[in-house]
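For reproducibility, we list the full input for the zinc ion complex.
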Amino acid sequence: MIRKDRLLENFISLTSIEGVSKKEREVADEVKKRLDGLKIPYVEDDTGAKISGNCGNIIATAQGKETKSTPFCFTAHLDTISTSYCKPVIREGVIYSDGKVVLGADDRAGIAAALEAIEAAIELDLNYPDIELIFLVAEEIGLLGSRNLDFSGLKSKYGFVLDSSSAVGKIIRNAPTHYSFEIDVRGRSAHAAIAPQDGVNAIKIAAEAIDKVNVGKVNEDTTVNIGTIKGGTKTNNVPDLVEIEGELRSLTQPKIPEEQEKIEKAFNIAAEKYGGECLFKWDLEYSGFLLDDDNVIIDWVSNAMRLAGVKPELTQVLGGSDANNFNEQGIPSVNLGVGYAKNHSPDEFMPVDDLVKMAEICLEIIKYSSNIRA
Ligand SMILES: [Zn+2]
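The corresponding predicted structure, in tokenized form, follows.
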């Protein structure tokens, strides 16, 4: 049985300690203490050293008796967007921070739910396969924990990521591919009054190009943003450089090169008109995924939710999560709505009932796993 008192106590203690990205040590140690108590073995990987953080990913394995079923994992991230150390308060069934810092339910709620479910499964002496509990660092600063995770060492064939700010019951089975880009618009420097004819104005090129680039939602599942622009040094000089940064996301992979081409074309046409040039740098932040209806994990999680009394709803988001990296590495994974809201702000809150529901869903996922044959 899920024990609400124990779950709440664990959640409160996890949200009361520091865990900003790259400084997850305190929260990781708290998680390890709980794993020790449950006699679940774990390792901490070397991601901390690789990313100059003070903590690595924790990979714990709850060994199961059910060898005919498929090993799977729950994942949640240890870090918060900014410093935590909050003093959570509960008002009318909802947990808030003290209003000064984030609550950090994103993603301590995921951690607490997974730990409560595994403890309940052990107490109930359930039959389940090996279950990996993967607690990741530095999710908030570019999914660095899962990017650096050694997937070849995992047993899991499926993954349940507990880290969406959508409502409990939402199953994210489609998320975008995300590229960031940098464009250097190169012109030619000259004195703006004495020899303007010798100059090529990079700001003029950039302005004309940007005017031609569609931004915002450019089609039903693709977004483009120009986020920063920097250029010019003084008023009496023809500027020779403008640096632009932006991003492109799409839920449909083939639309990515199409949009990249449109953006580059707009810049190249403007540069050619004035005699300048443009350099483009595209960085893949993460790859998208789409899990079809017939994927085992969709049925599995939907049934588990129904058994927990929650109506499952398949959905998509235009944001990335660790689920993107798990899917890219060949482990079909859904990201689940945890029910916290206003995350990344001091107004963040977590309804107690949702926290309990989340743990119950995790427990049903564990119970249902005996139906999933290896
Ligand atoms: Zn999160």
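The chain has two domains: 4-175+288-371, 177-286. The longest strand covers residues 177-186. Both points were considered when choosing residues for closer inspection.
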